[in-house]
Amino acid sequence: MSKRAVLEVIALDVEDAVAAQAGGADRLELVTDMAADGLTPSAGTVAGIRAAVDIRARIMLRRADGFAAGDAGDVDRLVRTVGELREAGAEEFVLGFLDSDGRVDLDTVERVVGVLDGCAWTFHRAIDRAADRDALRKQLDGLPGLDTYLTAGSAGGVDDGLPTLLAEAERRGQPGYEQQLLVGGGLRLDHVPVLRAAGVDGFHIGGAARPGGWQAPVSAEAVAEWRAVLDAC
């Protein structure tokens, strides 16, 4: 298996971004407010990070905790935010919205994707709360820029979702399954060998990059340990 696995690290600020790049991360996920599981950072934060590092960064598009898009005014504000983030240097994004029944909120996703102007984007762990994962994938299939699903396979995390992740890895290339599987959510180093053996080539870490907890910055050494394990598998 020669393809280098992608290692994506959550960054909250410039210090995090610099440490993640130093440790060998391939890409950042930029967010704020991890108490709400990660919301959209400010345009100023994005601009500062783009100036400090040269690895790719995907920007979270999410205004409130949970996976509902909110009302029409909330969606309007999110669309305006995309323009501000683009001006700050954002070129890749992360998003995902569900309705109250756990189905993909396709109207909102399509509206937001429409203003991304072809930028690459990840559908995030909203898929792990979806009523029907397969139906969600097929509804989103063909949307411009969608190239990744961030998932633990289960709302409970990778331990619970491992069978689903392995099954989805086997389906890669089928309709709705062409996108990269980016595994994150309770991911540990001991999960890596079985996931790599199944062909998974995307890994996403947040707390694992911060031995001191979310109040502490990203550790370049912790990221380097993940880089080494991924490269060895």
TrEMBL record:
Gene3D superfamilies tied to this protein: Copper homeostasis (CutC) domain
Family stated for the protein in its record: Belongs to the CutC family.
PANTHER family the UniProt entry points to: COPPER HOMEOSTASIS PROTEIN CUTC, COPPER HOMEOSTASIS PROTEIN CUTC HOMOLOG
Name of the protein this chain belongs to: Copper homeostasis protein cutC homolog
Lineage: Bacteria, Bacillati, Actinomycetota, Actinomycetes, Kitasatosporales
